[in-house]
Write a sequence for this structure.
């Protein structure tokens, strides 16, 4: 198979596994779907929560220089005037005069002036604003038009004064927010890579202007460390320095953290030096003094900002792609077959432990249920007594469960169970009374 086919196949395999096992479903499926919208199923929601919680712990709870915030999805439209989104958050768009397909201008190969779908003639480029509009309140007129936020960042800038007043933070310090953002993307696609509704985990890190270079480097290192924690191999990550002229309107330096997806290299996260662009504009447009007072020098100035931004769904997608393995594994009758296994970092696995009685016999089920309930309050667990034990192991491998606990007839006599490790497939016999410690040592890191 050619490389392109292998890669396309890899995406299809992931999309199909995600649906089959309840990670991600096509949105509104029973009505024929809503193009490129997705719903997160029982395993997907656990995994997504694990990503967000880990991120929050790492970048907010474990850092004395950070505070968290959660701001409204719909804000006063003046915010988007000040931020430049109403004016600048556009993609140049062309439309086919024949089949009316729309494309982003930058998708057309250099110099090509024909429709990518049917080869027909295309219109001159038109600016298309990516913000979703709606009406705030019962009257549907211009005065009540609001926008769903296209990024979480502005909610943090407009609360800068509130945070300074209530927390008395000194520079440097950061604000973090995790939440939904909406963009009326012209070309959504590639599964959950580009959607019109997605989640961001963003930090606005406020600094003295002369500290921007060292702070930028600090956050680049932090982003690399996070990716390592997420289980992403360094060789598929690229740090793309965006040249002047291609950067967003607010940025003086941007590094896109890109990943080698099966469909090509593309952005995963971004790191930008936003200068004092946002605070300056909000101060001007709101008429409020947003300056910071330096308690040592008495000087008043607008802090500058370094912004590391992380997409939740793109984190989810790369974590799945990185974890997916097809390996040859021995079967019960001495043959070998292929096992699919998601080798997630343990913290990321949606289910940490599966409890599997060897048979459905009442006395075994009862013992297994007892063990299941014992660990359920500490870890997300699954109880499964259907099908052969081999098949159940494979099911757990396929969803990345690090440990399977098997309860057999000997358990009833010796109060011991077998714990199977997802990655090595090694099995260990331990006492039930040791199980909690055993798991704690291996899962709580
Ligand atoms: P792209 O170049 O891929 O359109 P962008 O440069 O517009 O992305 P940013 O504005 O930097 O993206 O948004 C910050 C982060 O939010 C991105 O790095 C990405 O992880 C995530 N993100 C942005 N747009 C989408 C989307 N449409 N769907 C899913 N995630 C997104």
């Amino acid at each position: 198979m050619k490389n392109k086919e292998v890669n396309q196949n890899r995406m299809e395999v992931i999309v199909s596994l995600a649906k089959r096992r309840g990670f991600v479903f096509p949105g509104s499926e029973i009505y024929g779907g809503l193009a490129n919208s997705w719903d997160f199923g029982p395993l997907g929601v656990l995994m997504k929560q694990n990503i967000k919680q880990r991120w929050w712990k790492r970048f907010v709870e474990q850092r004395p220089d950070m505070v968290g915030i959660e701001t409204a999805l719909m804000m006063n439209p003046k915010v988007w005037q000040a931020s430049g989104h109403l004016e600048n958050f556009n993609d140049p768009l062309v439309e086919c005069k024949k089949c009316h397909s729309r494309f982003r201008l930058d998708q057309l190969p250099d110099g090509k002036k024909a429709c990518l779908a049917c080869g027909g003639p295309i219109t001159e480029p038109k600016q298309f604003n990516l913000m979703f509009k709606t009406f705030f309140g019962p009257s549907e007129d211009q005065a009540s038009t609001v926008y769903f936020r296209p990024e979480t960042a502005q909610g943090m800038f407009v609360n800068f004064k509130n945070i300074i007043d209530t927390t008395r933070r000194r520079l440097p310090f950061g604000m973090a927010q995790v939440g939904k953002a909406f963009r009326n993307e012209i070309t959504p696609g590639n599964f959950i890579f580009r959607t019109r509704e997605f989640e961001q985990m963003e930090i606005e890190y406020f600094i003295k202007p002369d500290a921007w270079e060292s702070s930028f480097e600090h956050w680049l290192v932090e982003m690399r460390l996070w990716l390592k924690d997420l289980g992403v191999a360094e060789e598929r990550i690229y740090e793309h320095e965006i040249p002047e002229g291609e950067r967003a309107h607010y940025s003086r330096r941007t590094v896109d953290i890109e990943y080698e997806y099966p469909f090509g290299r593309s952005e995963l996260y971004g790191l930008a030096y936003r200068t004092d662009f946002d605070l300056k504009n909000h101060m001007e447009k709101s008429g409020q003094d947003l300056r910071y007072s330096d308690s040592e020098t008495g000087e008043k100035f607008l802090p500058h900002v370094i912004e590391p931004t992380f997409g939740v769904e793109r984190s989810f997608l790369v974590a799945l792609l990185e974890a997916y393995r097809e390996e040859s594994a021995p079967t019960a009758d001495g043959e070998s077959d292929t096992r699919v296994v998601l080798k997630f970092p343990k913290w990321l696995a949606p289910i940490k432990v599966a409890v599997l009685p060897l048979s459905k016999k009442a006395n075994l089920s009862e013992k297994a249920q007892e063990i299941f309930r014992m660990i359920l309050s500490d870890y997300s667990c699954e109880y499964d007594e259907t099908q052969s034990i081999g098949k159940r192991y494979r099911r757990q491998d396929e969803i990345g469960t690090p440990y399977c606990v098997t309860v057999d007839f000997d358990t009833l006599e010796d109060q011991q169970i077998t714990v199977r490790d997802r990655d090595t497939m090694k099995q260990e016999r331990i006492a039930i009374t040791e199980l909690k410690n055993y798991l704690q040592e291996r899962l709580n890191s």
Notes: The longest helix spans residues 42-61. The pocket of adenosine-5'-triphosphate is lined by residues 151, 183, 185, 194-195, 198, 200, 267-270, 309, 311, 313-314 (CB under 6 Å).
